[in-house]
Amino acid sequence: MKKPLINLKDNTLKEVDIDDKIFGIKFYPDIIHQYIRYQNAKSRQGSHKTKSRSEVKGRSKKPFAQKGTGNARQGSSKPPHFRGGAVVMGPVNRDHSFDLNKKEKKLALKSALSTKLSEEKIIFVESLKIENHKTKELKKILDKFKFNSALFIYSNEDLDINFKRASANIPKVSILNHQGINVKDLVTYDKIFIEKNSLEHLSKRLA
To answer: To the nearest whole percent, how much of the chain has pLDDT over 70?
Structure first.
């Protein structure tokens, strides 16, 4: 499959070959959903915690005599119905993450990339290099592409410091190393700009 390779001025330079096995497979909503669940679970902090009866401050001694006070009998001042008492079956520290097979991860990424490409939401660019780091000038360049949000995928050897600085102040525009590409970002952002060398790295990784 061939797709146009453009520069940031929206001029087509040539065509680039892309792998049908990566950018041309069918949509797997269940796999994509599972991958996003996997990402969200990994990012959960898991530090929520309440104190049990063994942890709250206080004694286990009876607060008052069994009979003669007119109150309901109590064996301790730690139960949940007492002020300052414990929480029954409350949250505890835990790891929310779960495993996902490598094949499933690859399939989810391929499916997300293929879907974005079929919707014409992926743009392949020769380079992300710009002349200066002025946000105003970069915004003028990007306005031609008409997007609600955009993600720019770059490779390590081609990270342009001017582009990085200029894009940092533009709302809903992010940059991401090709090694960090993930399904959640592909689904979240309106348009995906993939730099040429990043495409080569992705093709090797997902082949």
So the answer is: 99
